[in-house]
Specification:
Strand order of the largest sheet: 2-1-7-6-5-4-3
Low-confidence stretches: 1-22
Keywords: Signal
Largest sheet: 7 strands, mixed
InterPro entries: Adhesion/Biosynth-related, FAS1_dom_sf, FAS1_domain
Strand content: 15-25%
Protein name: Fasciclin domain-containing protein
GO cellular component, one term: extracellular space
Radius of gyration: 17 Å
Length: 162
């Protein structure tokens, strides 16, 4: 029985290691495309014309809102942002979720500010769990070949758009 348990534990470890290695071989866009809970983000990135940029060398840190985060936006907001005539606004919202450097969760400090690709800063809080401009970090440190993804539970808006 102990031998079987060791085999199961070792198998789980190897599978986890395999997933981690596979994730690191994918760029940020490829990771998002392969993650069902980020499909709305993928749709938005495509509509904004940011696929090539976020597939580039980076490094990038992306605070990736889940589908539920997009669904929590007020009625009509997402649909409006996805319209071609609102592409500039969509780009501003999405690039506010990106830092032009690789920032792991261990690099974060309470009260830290980080300039986003959009140009404005996000604020970091570590009290009661990590948050980025008020959004909770649901899953941190998903490594990609061109940076890192931190999944968040809300869409964060640049202060200039509030």
């Amino acid at each position: 029985m102990k031998k079987l348990l060791k085999v199961v534990v070792l198998s789980v470890f190897v599978l986890g290691l395999s997933f981690s290695v596979k994730a690191q071989n994918k760029n940020i866009v490829e990771l998002a495309v392969g993650t069902e809970s980020l499909s709305t983000l993928v749709t938005a990135v495509k509509a904004a014309g940011l696929v090539e940029t976020l597939s580039g060398a980076g490094p990038f840190t992306v605070f990736a809102p889940t589908n539920a985060a997009f669904e929590a936006l007020p009625d009509g907001v997402l649909e409006s942002l996805l319209k071609p005539e609102n592409k500039d606004q969509l780009v501003a919202v999405l690039t506010y979720h990106v830092i032009g450097a690789k920032v792991m969760s261990t690099d974060l400090k309470e009260g830290q500010k980080a300039k986003t690709v959009q140009g404005e800063e996000v604020s970091i809080s570590l009290k009661g769990g990590a948050t980025v401009s008020g959004a909770n970090v649901a899953k941190a440190d998903i490594k990609a070949s061109n940076g890192v993804v931190h999944v968040i539970d809300a869409v964060i808006l640049p202060p200039s758009m509030k």
